[in-house]
Amino acid sequence: MITISLCLIVKNEEATLWNCLDSAKEIADEIIIVDTGSTDRSKEIAREFTDKVFDFEWVDNFAPARNQSFKHATMDYILWLDADDVLFEEDQKKLLELKRNLDPSIDSVSMIYNYGFDEYGNVTLSFRRNRLVKRSRNFQWAGDCHVYLQVDGNILDSDICVSHKRVHHSTGRNLAIYEKRLENGDEFSARDYYYYYANELNENQFYEKAIENYTAFLEMEDGWREDKIAACSRLADCYGKTGELEKQRNALYKSFEFDVPRPEVCCRLGSILMDEGNYRAAVFWYKAAIDYQQPEENWGFTFKAYSTWVPHQNLCKCYYYLIDFEKAYEHNEIAREFRPEDPGILHNKKILEEKLKG
């Protein structure tokens, strides 16, 4: 059986750290905590689980801190988590089983990262990340804010999930990191500069500047296909915020240059058409979102809401305006399976049952 070092970097994570460590304590043979300047109870909480708590001076870059945490590891493999991640019971069991049976020739195990949830517990955003890596390979972190682990070799794609349970977000922190690096004249990759920098601008409501950077990223030859597709959707959202509706539509169409229409793009096109009163055309795109077949090997972003309750709820509205109450009711009921307490869905149910009775 392999041994595992659990490595985290933390700063002021007292609200989430205990739950994270408690969910992984039975899996880890040692726990490494690198603290980058906490002023709350984070280090005190960490010491409930481990005596390997180290200070590291924050340098406006996540990669050095993560690499430092890896340097302290001594076990066969390194499992990394963020302080606001948890392993649910089912995934703890799967990971313990993997630990007992993992072939030592495996260099890295990827896991599904359930990053977003709605208020009913449905996963809204997920993607894969290399999560358990062989220590002897000395894999390194790269990037600055949205860092990534540079991994190669024999990789196993597992069905184990890590769930992100964020309770706060440092709005503006990552943007400040990027802008400081720009001032210093640092060389950025396409991924970091034109995509993730644009995301930070978008999140902080600098839409015009975000549009400029998304557009530059999409015009570059470099860049991961999945990032390009996501950039098209986010560019469209920015155009929607600035009222440039034709450019919004064209940004969505541009995603077709990189792959077949994705559910999130289909739903955005359906929404535009529904706003225009073109319900039949909107139906086409919402059905396309539902019919999309997810590839078995997928490292891109998966927005599950856009292939489940979102298109069904909107098909309910479309069919209502097309005076097809039976189909409207059918799709509303499917949406209700995912969100049984949603007030809007329950309201639609009541109205449609009255229509069908009359």
TrEMBL record:
This is Glycosyltransferase. Keywords: Transferase. InterPro entries: Glyco_trans_2-like (IPR001173), Nucleotide-diphossugar_trans (IPR029044), TPR-like_helical_dom_sf (IPR011990), TPR_rpt (IPR019734). PANTHER family: GLYCOSYLTRANSFERASE (PTHR43630:SF2), POLY-BETA-1,6-N-ACETYL-D-GLUCOSAMINE SYNTHASE (PTHR43630). It comes from Bacillus salacetis. It comes from the Bacteria. Pfam families: Glycos_transf_2, TPR_8. GO terms for molecular function: transferase activity. Residues 5-144 form the Glycosyltransferase 2-like domain.
